[in-house]
Amino acid sequence: MTRPDLNLLVTLDVLLSEGSVARAARRLQLSPSAMSRALARLRDATGDPLLVRAGRGLVPTPRALELAGRVGPLVEAAEACLRPAESLDLKTLARTFTLRNREGFVENFGPALIARVARQAPGVRLRFVQKLDRESSPLREGSVDLETGVIGEATGPELRAQALFHDRFVGVVRSGHPFSSGEITPARYAGGRHVHVSRRGNDTGPIDAALHPLGLKREIAASVGSFSEALALARATDLIASVPERYTGTLRENLFTFPLPVTLPEITISLIWHPRLDADPAHRWLRLCVREVCGGGAGGIRG
Question: In whole angstroms, how far apart are CA 158 and each of 96, 131, 137, 280, 298?
Fold first, then answer.
């Protein structure tokens, strides 16, 4: 079946509203002969004369009258699809955004983000879900609108990413722990009993790699899958936890924090989203909110 020329809908809409080939031609900036050829094509497409002569003018057929009430809205809707998005009205925006983050994000940045969103767009709801792995499928599938984290090998190459802030690892012990006083040297640090954080169940990590050239090895008494679990153990025992400083600020309340005596590279926490949402005005506004709440600059965009 031959696909109809949808451009004829615009021609039909103007013809029916003007009731004149000459006036329709002027409105569409066509010659009268070109307009007559367009009317002939419309008659072939619809199987109806549409406009017939009555004296010196043209009158619509019953089929044309039937189409008149349907074609206008169709053309208007099509034109709306091809126009740039209208300016965002935050006061009337009603939408739920799903944000995927590791533990610590909601505790540290959630209150300020919720307050900012509620102030600017009271109809917007934020849904926070736990980030249990680095898989990109939730962003690809659309179940997650935005996530934060460290860019890794599992991050889809097509995803957009923008730096939020840089972070460093610090040591954390309970209040009153022996480490809360005196110099913490690499040897003293390694001599303590540690809680190791690994979502993948690894026995060692970057800290152990940094201690190795010094001929030191720390004793790992427990391994957990999250920073919050490590801090809970540090709060209730003499174990030493090593966690990102900014990301766990609220989680470390009433605990003693000290700089690690070994050098580790900084980590970059980034904002990550799927490119299909790149130009969405509401999503762009949300990204701006997160960036400003987290204190990050414009950063570099990947993708």
Answer: 24, 19, 12, 17, 20
